[in-house]
Specification:
Layout (H helix, E strand, L loop, with lengths): L1 H18 L10 E13 L2 E8 L8 E4 L3 E8 L7 E4 L25 E7 L5 E7 L9 E7 L13 E10 L4 H11 L8 E4 L16 E4 L4 E8 L5 E6 L4 E6 L2 E8 L2 E3 L4 E7 L6 E9 L10 E7 L20 H9 L19 E12 L13 E6 L2 E3 L6 H7 L32 E3 L2 E4 L3 E9 L8 E5 L4 E8 L18 E2 L1 E4 L3 E9 L3 E7 L2 H5 L3 E6 L20
The protein binds 2-acetamido-2-deoxy-beta-D-glucopyranose (12 copies) and copper (II) ion.
One 2-acetamido-2-deoxy-beta-D-glucopyranose (NAG) binds next to loops.
GO molecular function, one term: hydroquinone:oxygen oxidoreductase activity
Protein name: Laccase
Pfam family, one: Cu-oxidase_2
């Protein structure tokens, strides 16, 4: 009897953890998010961090495909905040999207904003995070979107589902890290650790007991829902002695991909199956950086897969092999292998007839400083740009200015092509090409236009990967390569059959990536690099997508409690 009780209680706790408080039919799911400071002790330091509901990582949101969820965000901290629902398209409702000064003014301390999370075709794992300055470092959590019919997955029903959130951790206050690098013009201080579900693992000082442990039963299969919430790095991840099977990314299913390695961009999510099919023991899962340039935190975060059973626990489990930090092929290869399911039940809808061709260069730049007082290369200040324009956030959000016709907030002149054609990926690029311009401009798209956008990485200052994220849409990644994009030859090799459907894609260092999407979601939608330091330096822009003619093709009106500037 006691055993039965125990099993029941465990299942009940499992239900709460995984299935979440499922509402009865027709009841709208509603979450309360309270932004507040909370104490947090890790890695030999006691500090206070900004959290939602005192939790780090923050609460998981559970939903069913197509549902609308309400989140009441209360700001009880001392700073401005906005929350972005990363990968949620919000059809016709950009008001809840979240990027500060792009679609809304910040939620000020002491105020509240009720956000409507409008799900449509997303299914799988997404996440939410703060979208103002660097507060997303600790203000984020997973969004799990179940199929409409329970367990109707394109893979065998897993025994259990477990979020795996990768984080980046500074012992000092993260807003101070931000303020310091903005002031100095240099790269930000490297972080002190990476975390798995808020815990560093036991390879750090003072961290022996701070290890996330996943207990598994031999013979069972687990669905791990991974979110890369790291600030500034693409991450490698692997589990010792286990081959995993990737089944989804960015809230969309993929063809099953067996792999010993995952490379995941900040912003991206990867769902994968773990078969507990090895000798019962303890195994490390481990993650560390893939970095193609610059200074970075070279530490390794770990967690433990612990099989249930009667065996001698190894004093130190084996670490999985992770590629070299600079192994661009390993990273690009992994990402390049993702494919949509593209079958009858999960069809693709790749735009074949492109109406708008855009070509965007992604560059790191340098700006001069008075008296050479900055601490970036050549005593200048780091900056970054898209098509040579450093994105400047306005004082009033672009969406409001667009909707109400307020002039002088932004311009419509973002260029479809870079101002200059040069050898973007040459080893040496003349320094007079390193200086960007400033601007707050959008690309205007007609409703239903079909867009092909080619991102071209450049080698100004230093070439590096850029995980590019588009709000309001998913896009098909139809091609990628190293070097300069060749507009005559490269499109011949596009994958228009089963390209992956993503909302964040790493453009390889000194390479290019081509995406396609149909502009059928009216509104103002930001696009930016998901490396936090790059977006702070200005690597972003926005689209305005015009209303269509029919009633169901127009932006919905704003909610009454929209924060004001
Ligand atoms: C952090 O604070 C707690 C509670 O006050 C204390 O027990 C712990 O030793 C402190 N840890 C460090 C690393 O200072
Ligand atoms: C894991 O794999 C290694 C070889 O890659 C092997 O030496 C080791 O015994 C395996 N560990 C277990 C617990 O099976
Ligand atoms: C990480 O960097 C430190 C300092 O540069 C160096 O001493 C250490 O060997 C590096 N560790 C790894 C695993 O590369
Ligand atoms: C565990 O295995 C050991 C050695 O094989 C055995 O002596 C012990 O009785 C086992 N314990 C249980 C709970 O099965
Ligand atoms: C990558 O790092 C390894 C080991 O540090 C080094 O031998 C190799 O030259 C580097 N490769 C590139 C492409 O920089
Ligand atoms: C990358 O993929 C190609 C072809 O798919 C393969 O030939 C190559 O060995 C892979 N490289 C790495 C580093 O995995
Ligand atoms: C492609 O788009 C053009 C311009 O909108 C249109 O005239 C043409 O009919 C379209 N072709 C197909 C195959 O849809
Ligand atoms: C561009 O630069 C690369 C790297 O130095 C070089 O291999 C390539 O030949 C250059 N392309 C042209 C058209 O000059
Ligand atoms: C960017 O614009 C600046 C200012 O007009 C110019 O000096 C620079 O050459 C441009 N760089 C590129 C790569 O277009
Ligand atoms: C762009 O703005 C920065 C300061 O934000 C300034 O240092 C730089 O000179 C400006 N660039 C141009 C081309 O005006
Ligand atoms: C937009 O495209 C959809 C699907 O292709 C079509 O049903 C709809 O009529 C189009 N709307 C407009 C305004 O062109
Ligand atoms: C908070 O947001 C308001 C409204 O945009 C702005 O006036 C204020 O300066 C912001 N405060 C800080 C500290 O950024
Ligand atoms: Cu970037």
């Amino acid at each position: 009897m006691w055993l039965i009780m125990k099993v029941f209680v465990l299942h009940f706790i499992g239900f709460l953890l995984l299935g979440g408080v499922l509402p009865t039919n027709a009841q709208q799911r509603r979450y309360k998010f309270v932004l507040r400071d909370a104490p947090y002790a890790r890695l030999c330091t006691n500090k206070t961090i900004l959290t939602i509901n005192g939790q780090f990582p923050g609460p998981t949101i559970y939903a069913t495909k197509g549902e609308t969820v309400i989140v009441d965000v209360h700001n009880r901290a001392n700073e401005n905040i906005t929350i972005h629902w990363h990968g949620v398209k919000m059809p016709r409702y950009p008001w809840s999207d979240g990027p500060e000064y792009v679609t809304q003014c910040p939620i000020r301390p002491g105020t509240k904003f009720s956000q409507k999370i409008v799900l449509s075709d997303e299914e799988g794992t997404l996440w939410w995070h703060a979208h103002s300055e660097w507060s997303r470092a600790t203000v984020h959590g997973a969004i799990i979107i179940y199929p409409k019919k329970k367990n109707d997955y394109p893979f065998p029903k897993p025994h259990a589902e477990v979020p795996i959130i990768l984080d980046e951790w500074w012992n000092s206050d993260v807003e101070e890290v931000m303020n310091e690098f903005i002031a100095s013009g240099a790269d930000p201080n490297v972080s002190d650790a990476f975390l798995i579900n808020g815990q560093p693992g036991d390879l750090y000082l003072c961290s022996r007991s701070d290890t996330f442990k996943l207990t598994v039963d031999f013979g069972k299969t687990y669905l791990l829902r991974m979110v890369n919430a790291v600030m500034n790095n693409i991450m490698f991840f692997s589990i010792a002695n286990h081959t995993i099977t990737v089944v989804g990314s960015d809230g969309s299913y993929t063809k099953p991909l067996k792999s010993n390695l995952i490379a995941i961009s900040p912003g991206q999510t990867i769902d994968f199956l773990l078969e507990a099919n090895q000798n019962p023991s303890h195994y490390y899962m481990a993650s560390r950086v893939y970095a193609s340039a610059g200074n970075f935190d070279n530490t390794t975060t770990t967690a433990i897969i612990a099989y249930r059973g009667n065996y001698t626990t190894p004093a130190s489990p084996l670490l999985p092999n992770l590629p070299n930090f600079n192994d661009t092929n390993a990273s690009a290869n992994f990402t390049g292998q993702l494919r949509s399911l593209a079958n009858e039940k999960y069809p693709v809808d790749v735009p074949l007839n492109v109406t708008n061709k855009l070509f965007f260069t992604l560059s790191i730049n340098l700006n001069p400083c008075p008296n050479n007082s900055c601490e970036g290369p050549f005593n200048e200040r780091f900056s970054a740009s898209v098509n040579n324009i450093t994105f400047q956030l306005p004082r009033v959000d672009i969406l409001q200015a667009y909707y109400r016709g307020i002039r002088g907030v932004y311009g419509d002149d973002f260029p479809n092509d870079p101002p200059l054609t040069f050898n973007y990926t040459a080893d040496v690029i003349p320094r007079d090409l390193w200086r960007p311009e400033n601007g707050t401009d959008v690309v205007v798209l007609d409703y239903n236009s079909t867009v092909e956008l080619v991102f071209q990485g450049t080698n100004t200052v230093a070439g590096i990967d850029h995980p590019m994220h588009l709000h309001g849409y998913s896009f098909y990644v139809v091609g990628w390569g190293f070097g300069n994009f060749d507009k005559d030859k490269d499109p011949l090799n596009y994958n228009l059959i089963d390209p992956p459907l993503m909302e964040t894609i790493a453009v390889p260092r000194n390479g290019w990536t081509a995406i396609r999407f149909k502009a059928n979601n009216p509104g103002v939608w930001m696009m930016h690099c998901h490396f936090e330091r790059h977006v702070s330096w200005g690597m972003g822009m926005a689209f305005t997508v015009k209303n269509g003619k029919s009633r169901d093709a127009k932006i919905l009106p704003p909610p009454p409690d929209m924060p004001r500037c």
